[in-house]
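Incident log, support desk, overnight shift.

02:14 A customer reports that sequence design results differ from what the structure should imply. Their input is reproduced verbatim below. On-call engineer (initials T.W.) acknowledged and began investigating.
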């Protein structure tokens, strides 16, 4: 007989909506995990969601024969702007997802090629330390989350769509970035708001529509620019416009191309800028790790400009990235559902076909069973010398799982390495407030909040 899944007390109709911190839902999920353990069930206005917190359970649902990606409540709201584009498509189900992921339209290759060429590297002179540290000096207060957002948004737009946004030439963030943050926050809020209340919030709804329009305006601008400036470059945009599935002869419909462009602009920068900001935070909190990384960069790269061929020469940097994404996966949870009625943990917990499961990646990547008693500590050494490769399956899952895993992983990986190594090469970074302790802000992804640094140019460095 299966066990009852533990659940916090709930109120009639609303269920556990009041249990969740609306600004940073992840904080509530982490608290619930500490209180209830490996599995906990929440009820959102009658919709039950089971949250999985342990490695064993996450490993069990990482099985495409039994489970599929369920578009979570938050992502369902994101569909209002991006519909059946890659991230938010119902797959199995929606045909455009299969089209966009057919090997005949290899959407993950053009931006990898682009990173190998000079396009991505050409965004580096605008990396945070460079612009702020050199232009404004070592006492200037840098907001790395904002500047890495500028950098990664410019990089995805340039590499995937050959379109320059020049975000470092404006005081404020690009209007797209601000509209996107507001849109994603409202998507999160809507997912916790009873549907009955929604029509009453006219001002909020108008702003929600306006933010979508601002984002779509950029997509239209990029498409218009392509029409007036045709190119032979096989970038992601070209592939989307011309690619065809060999078997069916079908290409992506125009509306889906627009929604995929928007998806790439969002998914292609928000998570990577979070990764870069968390990396800087962890390194500054762990001076010995920073010292080792700096030594590696100085030894392997020295004073010359970093190139794409260097990215295989920096094992400690890769360990820092892996360890950062273990403790702070910037996409902290993912949705899943059983294909059929089933049980988890050898019959212990019954889960109904199509019912919502939330995989708490942040928590399962801290499971002491896999990571030991110091699982909560930042220790890049645990990712070195073959230890990462020897991990059990699905222990490290910041890029998702299976057929719905991240399509931009190689791009993000190269980008983050190039950016961080180039900054370390040129600058000493210091925390503005050495007593700062990590707190996060959350849209659908997470980033450090109120975190500020200084960048001091290193003597005699490029
Ligand atoms: C999917 C994480 C960078 C594009 C995903 C998923 C995760 C993830 C966890 C699966 C989500 C789910 O199961 O619901 C990350 C992280 C990144 C990153 C941590 C950086 C550190 C990027 C970049 C791009 C990108 C740079 C674009 C160039 C996408 C797309 C999907 C996706 C389009 C949907 C794939 C599908 O459903 O077929 N990402 N991502 N991501 N990612 Fe990323």
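02:41 Re-run completed on a clean worker. Output:
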């Amino acid at each position: 007989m299966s066990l009852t899944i533990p659940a916090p007390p709930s109120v009639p109709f609303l269920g556990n909506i009041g249990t969740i911190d609306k600004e940073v839902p992840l904080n509530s999920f982490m608290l619930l995990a500490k209180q209830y353990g490996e599995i906990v069930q929440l009820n959102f206005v009658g919709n039950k969601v089971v949250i999985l917190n342990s490695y064993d359970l996450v490993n069990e649902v990482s099985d495409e024969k039994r489970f599929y990606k369920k578009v979570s409540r938050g992502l369902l709201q994101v569909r209002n702007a991006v519909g059946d584009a890659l991230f938010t498509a119902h797959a199995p189900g929606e045909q455009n997802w299969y089209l966009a992921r057919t090997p005949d339209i290899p959407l993950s290759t053009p931006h990898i090629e682009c990173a190998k060429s000079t396009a991505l590297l050409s965004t580096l002179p605008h990396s945070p330390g460079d612009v702020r540290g050199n232009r404004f000096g070592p006492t200037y207060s840098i907001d790395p989350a904002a500047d890495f957002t500028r950098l990664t948004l410019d990089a995805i737009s340039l590499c995937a769509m050959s379109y320059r946004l020049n975000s470092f030439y404006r005081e404020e963030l690009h209007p797209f970035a601000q509209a996107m943050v507001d849109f994603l926050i409202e998507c999160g809020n809507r997912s916790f708001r009873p549907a009955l209340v929604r029509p009453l919030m006219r001002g909020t709804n108008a702003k929600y529509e306006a933010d979508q329009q601002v984002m779509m305006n950029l997509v239209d601008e990029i498409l218009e620019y392509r029409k007036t400036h045709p190119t032979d470059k096989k970038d992601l945009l070209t592939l989307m416009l011309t690619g065809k599935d060999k078997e069916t002869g079908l290409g992506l419909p125009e509306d889906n191309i627009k929604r995929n462009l928007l998806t790439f602009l969002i998914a292609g920068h928000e998570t990577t800028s979070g990764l870069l900001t968390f990396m800087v935070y962890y390194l500054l909190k762990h001076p010995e790790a920073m010292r080792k990384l700096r030594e590696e960069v100085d030894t392997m790269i020295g004073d010359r400009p970093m190139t794409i061929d260097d990215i295989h020469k920096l094992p400690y940097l890769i360990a820092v990235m892996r360890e950062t994404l273990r403790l702070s996966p910037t996409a902290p949870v993912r949705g899943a559902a059983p294909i059929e009625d089933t049980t988890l943990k050898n019959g212990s917990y019954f889960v109904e076909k199509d019912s919502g499961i939330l995989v708490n990646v942040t928590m399962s990547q801290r499971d002491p069973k896999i990571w030991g008693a110091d699982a909560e500590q930042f220790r890049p050494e645990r990712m070195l010398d073959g230890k990462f490769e020897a991990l059990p399956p699905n222990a490290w899952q910041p890029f998702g799982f299976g057929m719905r895993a991240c399509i931009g992983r190689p791009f993000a990986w190269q980008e983050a390495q190039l950016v961080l190594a180039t900054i370390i090469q040129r600058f000493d970074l210091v925390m503005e407030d050495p007593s700062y302790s990590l707190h996060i802000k959350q849209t659908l992804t997470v980033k450090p909040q109120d975190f500020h640094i200084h960048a001091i140019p290193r003597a005699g460095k490029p």
